[in-house]
Amino acid sequence: MIRILSAIIISVAIIFSGDVAAAPKKPTISADSAIVIEATTGRVIYEKNADVVRPPASMTKMMTCILGLENLPPNEEIIISQSAQDTAYPELDLMAGDVLPANELLMGLMLVSDNGGAVAIAQAVAGSVPAFAEMMNDKAWEIGCTNTNFVNPNGLPAANHYSTARDMALIAAYCMTNWDFRDIVSTKRETIHWMNPSDVTVKVENSNKLLGSYKGANGIKTGWTSAAGGCLAASALRGEIELIAIIMHSEDVDTRFDDAKKLLDYGFSRVSQIYGISVDSASQNVFVKNGEQATIEVGPESNLTFPLLDDEFEGKLSVDYEIPRVLEAGIKTGDAVGRAVLKYDGREVASVPVVARENVERGSNVVSKIIGWTEPLITVAQDFLTVWLA
């Protein structure tokens, strides 16, 4: 009897300890706004006042950097203007007339947050700061931001320059899809080289204290002004799971790192990455009418993932393919023909285009002709089978 009671007590303890482990306590964040997302899908794991409009400080430079990478060749010669030299807080001590290659200036921009360098990049890309700010806002809208407006490339205090934690997370996630951007923001220290004067070099160290001190940390950007408080866009990659945390308006320059650690810890304790749709295993054949052949192979354009949380179950994931029963010939490889929809518990959570994996030219294949003549019957038959098999 004693052994039985002991076994019961141990079993109950294990069950309850498992329940506790499966439900991590939400972090206590001192910053006024915060969010942590899964980087690939943008799924929100935790948020606090994520839609409150605040100054983003130097997190602004994420957008400046990505536009620089997308619009300037790496060795583009950037001449420092007088206005760039006169910009406040010149971490690189840039002087009017200095010449640096774009990649070196972008490295300095992100590691030590040089404000004049941001102005120089803006002028090189768009000709002027106002024109570049317009590009920044267009890109923010394209990414999906709804509460962001930029008026300068560096985040120095300015009226009508604002964003939210949610929008900053969207921008960070977009930027991290660029491998050159990832390489820059994960760099701990570097030496910046001038082209003119050719003998000038400056050693810089990344202001992101998480690099090298937090497991998997690989970016992204710090920020601070008296109005914005402590700001931080932090990312970390462990295995196949990558998280992005945004901190806005923390008490000081140190608590932002503490808050980011808490957010990332919480995210990693809750997320397990599941591949819902795989390019390699999700191809289908679809009928083709009036073609050189009667069927075509189609499949998802890319892998589609959904980050399951600790209280969710893989068995509730399902995939629906929204593809016409019969396609018209004249299809090229890569053409979108529909979409694959990933659902959790019957609710759409993500989707990806379904594309043709081969060409099918128009032609007179006999079976393909018959498919065209009998298309209404095929549709009715497939609908009947779908209902019957369900």
Structure description:
It is a single chain. This protein has 390 residues and is of the alpha+beta class. The protein has 11 helices and 17 strands. The protein has a 6-stranded mixed sheet with strand order 14-16-17-12-11-15. α5 packs across α6 (129-143). The longest helix has 21 residues, at 2-22. It is globular and about 75 Å long.
Fraction of residues in H or I helices: 25-40%
Query: What structural class do you assign from the helix and strand content?
Result: alpha+beta
- Kindly provide the radius of gyration, computed on alpha-carbon positions and rounded to a whole number of angstroms: 26 Å
Largest sheet: 6 strands, mixed
Question: Which spans have pLDDT < 50 for at least 5 consecutive residues?
Answer: 1-22
Q: What is the helix tally?
A: 11
State the total count of DSSP E strands.
Answer: 17
Q: Which strand order do you get reading across the main beta sheet? A: 14-16-17-12-11-15
**What is the strand content?**
25-35%
Q: So what's the oligomer here? A: single chain
- Taken from the alpha-carbon principal axes, the silhouette is globular
Mean pLDDT: 90
Series of H and E elements: HEEHEHEHHHHHEEEEEHEEEEEEEEHH
Q: How far apart lie the N and C ends?
A: 51 Å
